[in-house]
Amino acid sequence: MTSIRDVAKLAGVSPATVSRVMNNTANVDSVKRQRVEQAIKETGFKPNEVARSLYKKSSRIIGVIVPNIENPFFNELAGAIEEECDKKGYRLTLCNSNNDLEKEKRNMNLLSRMNADGIILMTNQKEIKEEVRKCQIPVIMLDRQVGTGSEIAYIQSDHYMGGRMAMEHLLDCGCRNIVQMSGPNRFSSARQRFQGYTDVCREREVTAVTLECEYDYEDGLKKAEELIERYPDTDGIIAANDMVAISVYKVLTKKGYRIPQDIQLIGFDNINLSRLFTPEITTIEQPIAQMGQEAVKVLTDYIEGREIRRQNVFPVRLIPRETTVEKPANK
Amino acid sequence: MTSIRDVAKLAGVSPATVSRVMNNTANVDSVKRQRVEQAIKETGFKPNEVARSLYKKSSRIIGVIVPNIENPFFNELAGAIEEECDKKGYRLTLCNSNNDLEKEKRNMNLLSRMNADGIILMTNQKEIKEEVRKCQIPVIMLDRQVGTGSEIAYIQSDHYMGGRMAMEHLLDCGCRNIVQMSGPNRFSSARQRFQGYTDVCREREVTAVTLECEYDYEDGLKKAEELIERYPDTDGIIAANDMVAISVYKVLTKKGYRIPQDIQLIGFDNINLSRLFTPEITTIEQPIAQMGQEAVKVLTDYIEGREIRRQNVFPVRLIPRETTVEKPANK
DNA sequence: CTGAAAGCGCTTACAG
DNA sequence: CTGAAAGCGCTTACAG
């Protein structure tokens, strides 16, 4: 491994000068500059980032902690984050917390000990609040919020409106026996959507029927079975998210129900897959790409000492597709 | 940020002793040890990983470069890798190359400058060979191979057999007009599967019909349209992978074909989604979890100076499901 | 067992 | 414009 000293020796200058040439951090006599550039080329010298980062106390690394590395929603989010980081000259270290509080803490710890410049956290556990406070580097929350959000900045979509819109849409489609598969109550997103859903129930004077379900397809399969057994005359289902909608579709189809003729179905997220699935799934869109982008923007503003908005809520949107059918009469 | 000096001062010992206590790297008088432990607790001291890694020239970080961060196959692979890294006490930095050679090189560069201990590379471009040779840290290939594999160690599944099995299965299902959607020719996986497919064609004396298709659903949609237009009497399709199978299903269904009655369909990979899809997709399974695990095992053996096997090929397996129907007569 | 010293490979005041 | 020096925060020979 060739170091800055080797380059300096070869070029007949001091390491300081090599550094200045590399980083363009001061004027350097053009003859020496050329000698240095030549020496760099000859030796194939690549500056050691670790040494630089030790001195600078910054690594230009952003840590991203996702609850589940195999969940398409988080992958699409991570994709958007990665793209934006790249544009801004940051690197990304992706950590998987597996929905495990201990692992989340461990990851935050490691990240800050690695001189990461900031962390984008997608979590659920309110116990993390303490950890975030103790963390010496900027942390923001994405997709979920902890507490009121007045302390830790967050980016998320308008889950409350999403909950409302999903329910209103099914009502507009003529459904009378609607079951909401709520996300886990420990997630703010699920609580907010649930709130939206029940508010509509109250306004429209229909009884709220809910079944809690994890945001993944395994549990979706299980809860769909349970749902149809407990509520056999269901004619509309609000799935916890698109993956769960896919599970529901599978279970119902197996049991001989037709969608949307017998039971209408709406998801949440608008992951790419929801459009690719057959039939295409009606869903509530979260602006995933924008949210990821904004997360990086807010975090880098934070890192670089600029003012940031603490509460960033993005509007959601109904994407009517093939698993629901709007009644013209109801319009 | 409290440093090792602060702890040392508080405990009334030298920084060296603190280091020895933390790392359990030498015997320390038990009274001093206790004082140090106490001081660490009081100050909440967390050792700086960057400093440690500068001295040790190792960060216990493994870099993983995936061609597409949003592709479920790579995500499942990354999930398996992450789990195994975690067990072995390594951390993982996930990089997205976006199928871009320049970005791949840049990522390899950054990783080695960050003192990463090794790299798991999922790439395609043979031009990367040069870069791997120049890279000062261990690199292995996963899912794909470059060159003959005698130079760069690789882990992959038996694509050739997979190509054979897919074709043999469709023939056993009674298909007569089979089209193979081959993956991009620049990928070793695609070339090997194609070879398996054509070998079966030759043996069974049927004409090979192929259409090249990227490994993603966007192109799958496009190529499925093209396929059915060019070969309207197709009765069996070997999709490039499961995502493409999903695209094909969508396009054919839209056009009124029934699967498997009119056209049978087989995918590749056995990503989770293939089972969750309705109908469940017949596919060739790659042992994703095992491959990810083995990649970490081989890489860490390499890093830690143990002997490694350069060619690691995992067997594939036919998973018959609902998009194909085996003819009993043909058995 | 333990401390002072040197060193990992950079960067940046500081002097000149 | 440029070099010698100090320092980023650790770890580990080296001496004692």
Automatic annotation (TrEMBL), chains A, B:
Keywords noted in UniProt: DNA-binding, Repressor, Transcription, Transcription regulation
Name of this chain's protein: LacI family transcriptional regulator
Annotated source species: Lactonifactor longoviformis DSM 17459
Superkingdom assignment: Bacteria
The UniProt record lists the keyword Disulfide bond: no
InterPro entries per record: HTH_LacI, Lambda_DNA-bd_dom_sf, Peripla_BP/Lac1_sug-bd_dom, Peripla_BP_I
Single GO term (MF): DNA-binding transcription factor activity
Residue span(s) of domain HTH lacI-type: 2-56
Upper lineage: Bacteria, Bacillati, Bacillota, Clostridia, Eubacteriales
